[in-house]
Amino acid sequence: MLSFTEENYLKSLFHLTVENSGPGETGTNELAMQLGVKPATANDMLKKLKEKKLVNYMKYSKSSLTPAGKKLAVTIVRKHRLWETFLFDKLGFTWDEVHEVAEQLEHIQSEKLIGKLDKFLNFPVHDPHGDVIPTAKGVMKTPSKNTLAEELPGHQCTLVAVKDNSTAFLQYVNKTGLSINKKIKVVSRELYDGQIEIEVDGKKNRISHRFAENIIVDCKICFERK
Amino acid sequence: MLSFTEENYLKSLFHLTVENSGPGETGTNELAMQLGVKPATANDMLKKLKEKKLVNYMKYSKSSLTPAGKKLAVTIVRKHRLWETFLFDKLGFTWDEVHEVAEQLEHIQSEKLIGKLDKFLNFPVHDPHGDVIPTAKGVMKTPSKNTLAEELPGHQCTLVAVKDNSTAFLQYVNKTGLSINKKIKVVSRELYDGQIEIEVDGKKNRISHRFAENIIVDCKICFERK
DNA sequence: TATTAAAGTTAGACTTCTCTAACAAATATT
DNA sequence: AATATTTGTTAGAGAAGTCTAACTTTAATA
Question: pLDDT value at position B226?
Fold first, then answer.
């Protein structure tokens, strides 16, 4: 049985390595930053998790999750996203409110609860942010992810996820008229600063490159979903 | 902000003092027993909670909740019972499974969550065990509580709550054909050992005095509810 | 009332997670 | 390559919650 803290470390490691399809490993400082903790603290925990065979750790080198660690991390991510879906779909929370509460709910220990919640929600595939919900067996369907910043003018795509879950960002997303599964048309892009002009529900808007980088879109599932 | 542990102490104090309408105060050993902790540990916490002005504590004497402590305790009880209702009504948990999971869920910190959950559940008045759910303002309607052991032969009443929430007890309750709001007719009682013959759904059953003492019934709301 | 039993308290220690401050290794820069 | 900067580690300490073991107070009883 893992403590809340240990679970949080596994989850952060998962986000920093597996999920963002980066180098597959992360440094102590980076991990500490993600968790809002001092590097010394993260270092201690890495050693502890190495003892439990959940993390590959070697002095002065990068760390990664072992298969066992990855499996546990995925179940935590699954719980987090199912709870977010519950809060959004059933309780009427807004997009930008769900994360904080789900951070707490994800640590509830009950296999049965998660199974029944999954069923109650009708086995959702995405959470309210568009992120994939792993199955009970730990399988994550990896969708083709492009950021809006990479889309070319003239293209039409669908918002499937956002990278940044901060309240400030999400509220800005809402203000721009965007939401999950919303169709976006790229009108033009500025070569100088990467600013993009988009069209949403027939309304045109100029967004910064930095903002666009945090919007994940999919052209394949574009017109299939409501 | 209280820790999980502090919340658990407040809740136990509430159950041992206010709710069971006992003497309104409880001893260190009794509290420790309830929490499954050693008296020394409970003693430390009582002093800590006294510092926070949530508990009335004096060396070598009984302890009780201050008004502030009582208020906090009631909100925890409210959360616990709302979650139990959710698990039972929406997720299809059985009567005897909900308590354990609700013990964890009750510590989630989000006023908004509880408000929305309350609404989602349609502002329930009782939890699956028949216990009263305090309102958002902390009001608990105290129902007229008699135990089945006190009912006289010939009387008809409705099961509104149980005193014992242990799995063993609840499963026995189920086996006897009883559940919340079930009509019970007292057929006869044995003067020698207090054994009672009851009729539930036309089926007769003999139950022990000890068992009957843990069944709370109400004759007033007898035939009003489904 | 004197003694025993029960209830309550204290002191010191352990675990988990965190920190600061000093130090060591690896990487980047000139 | 020598130095500077970044990154990572260690040692020591503190807060929270728990324990054991020894001790004190209160209540029960003979």
Answer: 24
Contact present, A160 and A223 (Cβ < 8 Å): no
Retrieve residue A35's tokens. Answer: 């968790």
Q: Does B3 touch chain A (CB under 8 A)?
A: no
B74/B133 Cα distance (integer angstroms): 9
Q: pLDDT tens digits for B73-104?
A: 999 999 999 999 999 999 999 988 999 999 99
Q: What pLDDT is stored for residue A221 in this prediction?
A: 34
Nucleotides of C under 7 A from a protein CB: 7-12, 16-22, 25-26
By CA distance, what is A84's nearest residue in B? B113
Q: Which helix (H) or strand (E) holds B147?
A: strand B146-147
pTM over 0.70: yes
Size of interface A-B (CB pairs under 8 A): 39
Residue for token pair 């009729």: B199
- pLDDT for B144 equals 61
Of B91, B116, B120, the CB nearest to A117: B91
Nearest to B71 by CA among B32, B18, B3: B18
How far lies B209's CA from each of A142, B176, B204, in Å?
61, 14, 16
Of B91, B101, B109, the CB nearest to A120: B91
Tens digits of residue pLDDT in A29-41: 999 999 999 999 9
Instruction: Find how far residue A18's CA is from the centre of its chain.
Output: 12
Question: Residue B175 forms beta bridges with which residues?
Answer: none
Residue of B nearest to A100 (CA): B110
The dihedral formed by the CA atoms of B11, A83, A87 and B80, expressed in degrees to the nearest 10: -10
- B108 interfacial to chain A (CB closer than 8 Å): yes
- Look up residue B75 and give its DSSP letter: H
**What is the number of other CB atoms lying within 10 angstroms of the CB of residue A45?**
22
* Nucleotide in closest CA–C1' contact with A60: D8
What is the SS3 string spanning A85-137?
HHHHHCCCCCCCCHHHHHHHHCCCCCHHHHHHHHHHCCCCCECCCCCECCCCC
Contact B65, B13 (CB under 8 A): yes
Q: How far is the CA of A59 from the C1' of C27 (A)?
A: 16
Distance B7 CA to D16 C1' (A): 14
Q: Which nucleotides of D are covered by protein (CB under 7 A)?
A: 7-12, 16-22, 25-26
For residues A52 and A62, is the Cβ–Cβ distance under 8 A? no
Its sign, for the CA torsion B30, B23, B45, B99, is positive
